[in-house]
Design a protein that fits this description.
The complex is a heterodimer. By secondary structure, chain A is an alpha/beta fold. Chain A has 7 helices and 10 strands. Chain B has 3 domains: about 375 residues, no CATH class; about 190 residues, no CATH class; about 160 residues. In chain B, strand 16 and strand 17 form a beta hairpin. Classes of the chains: A alpha/beta, B alpha+beta. Chains A and B meet through helix 2 and helix 3 of A and helix 15, helix 26, helix 27 and helix 29 of B.
């Protein structure tokens, strides 16, 4: 049974009489534990697809079903709670909260959910990501790679079934990119997660179990 | 090296940046407009308030003159005529007294003549509307409107015949009576609205023509004259030196020292202080808005730097925007201010007070210089406020710009926090994350609210009721002339009046001789005669060796207890009641109250000599009376004792404690409606009279206070708006990682409440201290001011602040959140 399914997903932007079709009827299925890369040219609609999958954006029509639950039927409040419990996000520009240190950024979603931090899991993630001595640093004092690792740690700590990564290596050098991708692969396997990663990088995409290509808002068969 | 002229390109770029930042522009313009509006409105209304206060003081003085010299000599007149600092020199002369026993609530009417300069320059500006003209000949007389009213003449007309009994001379103790009282038919040639302090004591001045007295018993040597001078500021101190030495009949009064705004450095200091505070407030507000704005654009400035824009060009880009925004901000601020000053305030005053107040009590002439000054001050404030943000934009490095988060770079590490309420901690952390910014916001908000609180506290302390308290200690005072004899039934009738809590009365034995057996009054009598410049004739009339004539008053137990608490010495009421003790009260010109005295006096009453022990120190003559004494001090003895020895005396004064009851005031007036020789004065009436006189000035004060509150709150809203709006992306990040909208709203509300709590604490501590400091300054100018802690205003402003703190951030966030999370995350420009 697919853990993530999109059904005829459409996202249209209207500007006057012009209609931009960011997504134009995307239907796909992703199985639990799969590592999927989504590739496509700039403006092809990959990020929009990822945001729809994660409930960060609402479609013009169509449905997103996660674990058999149609998330488009949820209210904004329910969707946020659902997101923080079931989906981990890794953004290209990290989206760390600048006033919180690395540790606080990592544990933030768990604490916002009113749960106790699983210190053992945290220790494992931090160790796996090599962040042990960076936990007290503010994001502004971390390098791009370190910030991206903090954002990955943040995404993993909530033990999400699905990890959505939007060009996670886009701002990183090749060495760090390689490290981050390996981490995705390893942590995905270790924590039994489904990983959907958007990338421009063909090499990075090849690390995935499956590659989905998008062009002009449609999946290219 | 040759430079290219890139001004056009820079201007174009700056204009384009501006046109892309419309919302930010609106906030900067509002901030500048608010500052300009506040400065110019305070300058105009504040100077109007000071002018009005000055005018009010002159109206209370009854003259616009600065200096009054009584009985000037020819040499002094010669000297003063040479003085270029003197703008106007008016002469007046006290001719005689009208007998007012027949009229209720008219204590005295003094007949006075004044020359044209005195009338036109010193009197006319201080009275309200005038009907008719100054008496020009013979029997013409001009009276205050209130006197006509109390005489029962509700609809006076010019040429109306009014018969008064009057006599020449005896205008005070120094001047002999010049004729017996005789009836005379005057012709009413005018009446005027009297707002002077005299009216508070039911004393009036009637103006007469020169030829009324020129051919009478009164002349230039046997009547009191006064020279009134208007002097330009610098010359005032030297006038006294020119006319020294004064002879024994002369008094020199500098009215400018009696609280007139002209010389009150304190008032000017208060306005300057207010303007500086507003400028600092405006600085904080504009700085904050500009700083947040530049910080939001910092990536763009970094990119421009990368593209080769120099520091100088970058600064020009920012300063061009600041100049354009300043122009619109200052322009709109001045327009709103002019609308307020020229339309709203006069309309408000007119609708409350009607035309009469506009004519007399209030000054509403504004100098265009005030607007120019406000524009200059505002531009100065904007210029100073924009320096740091301009430098920040100019000096930013492209790399720093990309990493800029607004978080203090020095705070590299901070401890783990994993326990407790995360939302609460984040909220508190957010308030203090940028300490300088927080200090700016809090300082700005605190100053805005403090201004409101201080102005309100001061205005409340200057309430007319406190001025009335200065004039009257009791709520209702009924004074009974010698010709009117009241019996005890009237006291019963008064006790039955609703709201009357206490009735006390004094009886009076006029011109009672007594003997100072121990000669303990010698020094007092000498001092009185010297200070009062008492003529020989009067000394002969009221003293005879160690025998003196005095007013003897009988008081009851309540008044005795009050006297004991005033002199602060234990006295036995039984001794007093049995005629063993008497209390002396010193005259105002010999301020002996509180001075120790001992010994005995002997009162010969009904053929028997009664020896009374004198209480250990003096009371003031105003204790239960109007302050008048003969040469010897007034003597207070037991009413009951006087009755027992068959010298009860007449009831001459009844004091009622009624609170501010209008009902009691009306009922008491009704009781005495048909009595002649009875004056009823009530504090309620005085307050109403004063409030009528103060209505314009009160409106101006309230206008300032409302404007300050409005500006303070707008400042608050602006700050909160800018603060939340500037963090739009950060809030979207929080949402993206799972913070619900409700949690974000709660966090923002907590942040707002932290601000509100800090401001409340500051208001109660620093604000209260500042209020008290300002109050001391005002008290030095207006002695009747009472410190009044404006709890209600503070509570109101803090409640509004709390509401704003809770609502505005949430409103701003919800407005932002109409956009999706992704759009907000992508947006670099959130302002």
């Amino acid at each position: 049974m697919p853990i993530l399914q999109t059904v005829d997903l459409k996202k249209y932007y209207r500007q006057g009489e012009n209609v931009t079709k960011a997504l134009d009827g995307v239907s796909l299925e992703i199985n639990a534990g799969e590592f999927v890369s989504v590739v496509g040219t700039s403006g092809s609609g990959k990020s929009t697809l990822l945001h729809m999958m994660g409930g960060l954006d609402s479609p013009t029509s169509g449905r997103v079903i996660i674990n058999g639950i149609d998330i488009s039927e949820k209210s904004a409040e329910q969707l946020t709670v659902f997101r923080r419990r079931h989906i981990g996000f890794v953004f290209q520009n990290y989206n760390l909260v600048p006033v919180l240190n690395a540790y606080e950024n990592i544990v933030l979603p768990v604490q916002l959910d009113g749960r106790r931090v699983d210190e053992k899991l945290l220790g494992e993630i931090v160790e796996a990501l090599g962040l042990e001595d960076k936990l007290e640093n503010l994001p502004g004092n971390l390098s791009g790679g370190q910030q991206q690792r903090v954002s990955i740690a943040r995404a993993l700590l909530t033990k999400p079934e699905i990890l959505l990564a939007d060009e996670p290596t886009g701002n990183l050098d090749s060495k760090t990119s390689q490290d981050v991708l390996s981490l995705f692969k390893a942590t995905g396997m270790k924590f039994h997660q489904t990983v959907v990663m958007i990338t421009h990088n063909e090499e990075a995409a090849l690390l995935a179990d499956r590659i989905i290509r998008i062009e002009d808002g449609k999946i290219k068969k | 090296m040759f430079y290219n002229d890139t001004r056009k390109q820079i201007k174009k770029l700056a204009d384009e940046i501006m046109s892309g930042n419309r919302r930010r522009n609106v906030f900067v313009i509002i901030a500048i407009a608010m500052t300009t509006f506040l400065i110019s409105t305070i300058l105009c209304i504040g100077s109007g308030y000071l002018k009005s206060a000055d005018k009010q003081q002159k109206m209370l003085n009854g003259t616009a003159a600065d200096i009054i010299l009584t009985n000037p000599t020819e040499q002094q007149l010669q000297a003063l005529r040479q003085d270029r600092a003197i703008t106007y020199m008016g002469v007046s002369r006290q001719i005689g007294f009208i007998d007012t026993a027949a009229y209720p609530r008219i204590n005295s009417i003094l007949l006075r003549w004044c020359d044209e300069v005195e009338w036109e320059r010193h009197i006319v500006p201080t009275v309200g509307s005038i009907n008719g003209h100054y008496p020009s000949s013979g029997s013409e007389i001009m009276l205050p409107t209130w006197v006509l009213g109390r005489m029962g003449i509700e609809n006076p007309f010019l040429g109306q015949e009014i018969i008064f009994s009057f006599r020449y001379g005896y205008t005070d103790i120094h001047w002999p009576p010049l004729s017996e009282a005789e009836e005379f038919s005057f012709t009413l040639c005018g009446w005027y609205d009297d707002h002077s302090g005299n009216k508070m004591y039911d004393n009036a001045i009637a103006y007469i023509a020169k030829d009324f007295w020129e051919n009478s018993a009164a002349n230039e040597t046997n009547t009191k004259s006064a020279l009134s001078l208007t002097v330009s500021g610098e010359g005032r101190g030297e006038i006294y030196l020119e006319i020294e030495p004064l002879n024994e009949l002369q008094e020199y009064t500098d009215l400018s020292k009696a609280g007139s705004g002209k010389s009150s450095l304190g008032s000017a200091a208060a306005v300057i202080g207010l303007i500086i505070t507003i400028m600092v407030c405006g600085y904080l507000l504009i700085y904050n808005v500009l700083f947040v704005s530049v910080a939001k654009d910092i990536r763009m400035y970094g990119q421009l730097k990368t593209l080769g824009t120099t520091e100088r060009q970058m600064k020009k880009i920012v300063s061009h925007q600041v100049r354009v925004l300043s122009f619109w901000g200052i322009f709109s601020g001045l327009i709103f201010s002019a609308a307020t000053v020229f339309l709203i305030v006069p309309f408000g005053i007119q609708s409350i007070a009607g035309n009469r107040i506009m004519d007399s009590a209030i000054s509403l002439s504004y100098s265009p210089l005030a607007f120019v000054a406000a524009g200059v001050f505002s531009f100065g404030t904007v210029f100073v406020s924009s320096r740091k943000p301009t430098q920040m934009a100019g000096r930013v490095s492209p790399v720093e710009a990309l990493r800029y988060t607004g978080v203090n770079a020095f705070r590299q590490k901070c401890g783990k926090t994993s326990r407790g309420d995360k939302v609460l901690k984040m909220a508190v952390g957010n308030v203090f994350r940028n300490k300088k910014g927080t200090v700016l916001v809090i300082a700005s908000l605190f100053m805005g609210i403090s201004l409101f609180v201080i102005v309100n506290g001061i205005l409340a302390g200057l309430d007319a009721s406190y001025l009335a308290d200065e004039y009257m200690k009791d709520d209702i005072v009924i004074e009974i002339s010698r010709q009117t004899n009241l019996d005890d039934s009237i006291l019963e009738a008064l006790r039955a009046v609703p709201d009357v809590r206490e009735v006390s009365y004094t009886t009076k034995l006029s011109e009672q001789w007594f003997t100072d057996t121990g000669n303990v009054l010698d020094k007092y009598i000498t001092d009185f005669c010297v200070s009062g410049k008492v003529p020989e004739e009067a000394v002969r009339q009221y003293t005879d060796g160690n025998r003196y004539q005095a007013y003897v008053y009988g008081i009851g137990e309540q008044d005795f207890n009050e006297a004991v608490s005033v002199i602060n010495s234990p006295l036995d009421y039984e001794d007093f009641r049995n005629g063993k003790t008497a209390i002396l009260a010193s005259a105002t010109i010999v301020p002996y109250e509180g001075t120790a005295i001992g010994g005995q006096v002997q009162l010969p009453i009904n053929g028997e000599n009664h020896t009374l022990e004198i209480a250990p120190c003096y009371l003031s003559a105003t204790f239960k009376e109007d302050g008048k004494t003969l040469i010897a001090p007034n003597i207070y003895v037991s009413q009951e004792w006087l009755e027992r020895i068959g010298a009860a005396g007449q009831i001459n004064r009844i004091a009622l404690q009624t609170g501010r009851s209008e009902q009691a005031h009306n009922a008491v007036n009704a009781i005495f409606d048909n009595y002649s020789g009875v004056t009823v004065a009530s504090k309620v009436e005085k307050i109403n009279e004063l409030k009528t006189s103060f209505i314009g000035i009160t409106f101006l004060g309230n206008a300032i206070s409302v404007i300050l509150l409005g500006i303070g709150l707008m400042n608050f809203i602006n700050m909160m708006y800018v603060s939340v709006n500037g963090r739009g992306r950060e809030l979207a990040v929080l949402e993206s990682v799972g913070m619900t909208k409700r949690q974000i709203c709660r966090m923002l509300q907590i942040e707002g409440n932290v601000y509100a709590i800090i401001i409340a604490l500051l208001i109660f501590t620093l604000g209260s201290g500042a209020l008290y400091g300002f109050f001391r300054m005002v008290k030095a100018q207006a002695s009747y001011a009472v410190f009044n802690y404006p709890f209600l205003q503070i509570a109101t402003s803090l409640i509004i602040v709390a509401i704003i703190c809770n609502l505005v951030p949430v409103f701003v966030y919800k407005t932002q959140a109409r956009q999706g999370v992704i759009e907000r995350l992508r947006s670099n420009e959130s302002m």
